[in-house]
Write a structure and sequence with these properties.
The protein is an alpha/beta fold. The chain contains 13 helices and 16 strands. Bound molecules: nicotinamide-adenine-dinucleotide and (2R)-2-hydroxypentanedioic acid. The site of (2R)-2-hydroxypentanedioic acid has 8 residues, from loops. Keywords: NAD, Oxidoreductase. GO terms for molecular function: NAD binding; phosphoglycerate dehydrogenase activity.
Length: about 400
């Protein structure tokens, strides 16, 4: 039986894949968990039990998960790349329009009118006029699953689009419309864009990405859209730029105490991926990845360990090993297997950054606690698990 802890509301389209005979689901209590499924719940202060094997983030961003700590403890962190990209793309369209047309302020105003509404609407509406987006330039920072969809959408809306992503993958580059101008200079993007839309992860390097300096490089009167993460934009710097009229508006999916009810700021309560389609796609994807890991040791879409899968071979025992990516690990592992006369039927070893992963199918010997402990005692080994 595997214990699964859920944080946040996870779509049943995902949870229903956990077979009731093999999985017990408990919301919020992680003390005995083999796996966690969560959305935006912040895990940085959560004590990670020794039972924990994997964390599945039903979404794209993993900044709410202590990924490095998980790697050190041999906990595989999964996410759902692209599974909510369309939902966020559509929300970016809304944000793009909301940054231009003052619908948010207009709606607040109209709902507070007191009598003779039709007359007052026609008299007062001019204060909410805003420019059309067709023909304007959209700058897309980050051309991953969401950024590519947003860039291509901009072209379809009749905008000029300039995209920046120094780490763009070949797969994403292929999906990018030929009409998108790819730039290797952020300054060029800031210099040309009437609308800047952020689609990058929040990691140490991107914290405060839109600081005073980068905001000052934006065209006068440009608009900023942040559907990615709050920590990417410095609140004080963007509020100052709006106050001074250098930036026309800021639409964010990540409200803070400082941003709400401020002129020129539209706050959306983190709704980018809140569609049934995105929630179901994400939950289905990560639950199946988690099941395949717990039951077969296969890894798909992990952010801290390499993708690694192996078909099961009948009559073998499967051992999975998580280790530091240092020399001679395979030699040390196979030395233990040969000592016990184990026949390695299949073996796959993959590495990602500082960590590596092995799936080893053996025959010819039983696997017991003593042998597992011997493997665990090898220097550099983080975790060993029998997956029978
Ligand atoms: N508002 C929401 O509900 C919501 C939903 C999904 C994702 N997100 C956020 O959007 C982000 C992007 O999601 P995605 O699915 O497109 O992820 P992704 O990993 O597919 O794409 C991110 C892209 O950013 C690029 N990048 C990284 N650092 C960069 C930098 N300094 N400059 C330019 N490009 C850089 C990467 O190369 C990658 O192509 C996520 O990390 C998450 O924080 C928000
Ligand atoms: O779970 C959510 O609602 C938001 C997910 C989103 O922020 C993501 O990074 O995928």
């Amino acid at each position: 039986m595997f214990n699964i802890t859920t944080f946040n509301k996870i779509s049943n389209e995902g949870l229903k894949h956990f077979d009731k005979d093999s999985y017990s689901l408990t919301p919020d209590d992680i003390s005995n968990a083999d796996g966690v499924v969560l959305r935006s719940y912040k895990m940085h202060d959560t004590v990670l039990p020794d039972t924990l094997k994997a964390i599945a983030r039903a979404g794209a961003g993993t900044n709410n998960v202590p990924v490095e700590k998980c790697s050190e403890k041999g906990i595989v962190v999964f996410n759902a790349p692209g599974a909510n990209a369309n939902g966020v793309k559509e929300m970016t369209l809304l944000a793009l329009l909301a940054s231009s047309r003052k619908v948010n302020d207009g709606i607040k105003w109209v709902n507070n009118l007191d009598g003779d509404v039709e007359k007052q609407v026609e008299k007062g509406k001019s204060q909410f006029a805003g420019p059309e987006i067709m023909g304007k330039t959209l700058g897309v920072v980050g051309l991953g699953a969401i950024g590519v969809l947003v860039a291509n959408m901009g072209i379809k809306l009749g905008m000029k689009v300039i995209g920046y992503d120094p780490y763009i993958s070949v797969q994403k580059a292929i999906g990018l419309s030929w009409d998108v101008k790819y730039s290797s200079s952020l300054d060029e993007l800031f210099g040309q864009a009437d609308y800047v839309s952020l689609h990058i992860p929040l990691v140490d390097k991107t914290k405060g990405f839109m600081d005073e300096e980068n905001i000052s490089k934006m065209k006068k009167g440009a608009r900023l859209i942040n559907m990615s993460r709050g920590g990417l934009v410095n609140d004080a710097a963007i509020l100052k730029a709006i106050d001074e009229g250098r930036v026309s508006s800021f639409v964010t999916d990540f409200p803070t105490d400082d941003l709400i009810n401020k002129n020129g700021v539209v706050c959306i309560p983190h709704l980018g991926a809140s569609t049934p389609e995105s929630e179901e796609n994400c939950a289905r994807m990560v639950v199946n990845q988690l099941i395949d890991y717990l039951e077969n040791g296969n890894i798909t879409n992990s952010v801290n360990f390499p993708n690694c899968s192996l078909e099961r071979t009948e009559g073998t025992h499967r051992i999975v090993v998580l280790n530091k990516n240092v020399p001679n690990m395979i030699g040390s592992l196979t030395a233990v297997f040969s000592k016990y006369n184990a026949n390695i039927i299949e073996m796959v070893n993959k590495s990602k950054g500082d960590y590596a992963y092995n799936i080893i199918d053996i025959a010819g010997t039983e696997v017991n606690e003593e042998k597992i402990e011997e493997l665990k005692s090898i220097d550099g080994i983080i975790k060993v698990r029998l997956v029978d």
